[in-house]
Amino acid sequence: MTEYSADRTVWTSKLKEAYGETVELEDERGKSSVYHIDAEFEVNGRGYAVLTGTGKLAEQEILRIVTSPDGLPELESIDDDEEWEDISELYDELTFPDDDEV
User: What is the pLDDT of residues 44-90, one digit of tens each?
Assistant: First the structure.
């Protein structure tokens, strides 16, 4: 079991450096959508990105950042439910750190 903690988290900007403020992703049906890069961070040597869609029903997505064979950052889904939940909770903790103290 991997432990994710705020003190092991490093903010990064690999996607923004490679692609700018937005990325275009294609879903399994071939439909493209533009997403704003809200945040990028690494924890335990793995990179993650928090993206928000630009449409009317924009939702926040959390994806893993991997490096392609040509050295560019790419995004992949987090298929492991436990990993996704842990990273989602960690991002909330990083974004809203004082919630527990109220």
Answer: 889 999 999 987 778 899 999 999 999 999 999 999 999 999 999 99
Q: Return the ∠ at Cα 60 (arms to 27 and 32), rounded to 5°.
A: 25
Count CB atoms within 10 A of the CB of residue 84.
Answer: 16
Buried b (16+ CB within 10 A) or exposed e, 50-80: bbeeeeeeeeebbbbbeeeeeeebebeebee
How far, in whole angstroms, is CA 1 from its chain's centroid? 20
Surface-to-core class of residue 91, CB atoms within 10 Å of its CB (0-12 exposed, 13-18 middle, 19+ buried): buried
